[in-house]
Amino acid sequence: MKAKPHVAILTFDFPPSTGGVQTWLGEMAARWSSRMRLTVITPVAANTSHEPWERFVVPNTHPWTFWRALQAVQPEYLVIGHAHPRLLLAAWLARRPFTLIIHGADFLAARGRWHFPLFVALINKAQRIIANSHALAARYRQHGVHAPLRVVHLGTDPNRFHPPAEPVPHPPTILTVSRLHAYKGLDTLITALPHIRQAVPKVRYLIAGTGPDRPRLEALARQYGVEQAVVFRGYVPDEELPRIYHEADIFALLSREEGGNIEGFGIVLLEAAASGLPTIAARSGGMPEAIRDGITGVVVPPNDVQAVARHTIDLLQSPEKRRAMGQAGRRWVEEQMNWQRVSEEVARLLLGST
């Protein structure tokens, strides 16, 4: 019997810690473990003794620490889980070909720093790069990255995120699930709320997530007199996340490029689509690739308060349109935008079968 290929993932971020990188890597590991011998090299300890992969926990994030781990593990294939100079340097020191996964701000935030040329040079050592959107891939190309680059759009789990079995009573609700940072554009929706309330007086804006921008957003809601309509739910545990989509009629993600940050894709847009919600997203970063404009949702210019208000009112007042977009989004996730498709596509690239 042919031995399974031995693959190692090098990463700072991995479950049980949470975030976009952790979700991507955790979903890949769960699906790859049946077809590969998988070793995850990370400083993040497990919260269970039963994992279908080997977890090699390192004591720190120094490049030499990861290099020593690679020398001990000796994988056939190496995946760098996110673009960071320390991880890339470890792979280069080990003289191992690697596949690099890029997600968004990990690279772009380094622009203008002293080490950026070195960062680009290390990225160009990659055997291949896998980006989550064409928009992100284009940004890397603009900054001197010439290594082979492929785009594999993200997915979500349609078994975990799905419409409620029975309708959950709630007032007309717009939902955003996001870290509260200025570039995430929640202020655009709050600024649009007075216009939306003129047409839909009982509307509420439900915000799930934490972050440093919350005080500013709360002050903005008071400034526009909509503080009673804006609900800050705060931190939502991962196991409760699917249910929060059941409390909404529309999902909005209005991120913009700001301060070196960019929305690489916007996986929450797919979670909302899987849950049967129409989505509204800004035309920024990779978000337009997470929506089929006019079919599963609507794409608007970033910071365009009037466009956000207009489309939100239209969807809130058009239950049939909401239902049609929600059903189209659900089908899209079931048929294409799911983790099974992502894992198979990335595995083919990684193992060189395509």
From TrEMBL:
> What sequence ranges are listed for the domain Glycosyl transferase family?
169-332
List, in alphabetical order, the Gene Ontology terms for molecular function in this entry: hexosyltransferase activity
Give the signal peptide as a residue range, or say none if absent. none
- Keyword tags: Glycosyltransferase, Transferase
Q: Which SUPFAM superfamilies match?
A: UDP-Glycosyltransferase/glycogen phosphorylase
For whether the record's keyword set contains Glycosyltransferase, the answer is: yes
A Pfam cross-reference name? Glycos_transf_1
| Domain of life per record | Bacteria
Does Transferase appear among the keywords?
yes
Glycosyltransferase subfamily 4-like N-terminal domain ranges (all copies):
19-160
Q: Which PANTHER family match?
A: SULFOQUINOVOSYL TRANSFERASE SQD2
Report what the protein is called. Answer: Phosphatidylinositol alpha-1,6-mannosyltransferase
Q: What species does this protein belong to?
A: Ardenticatena maritima
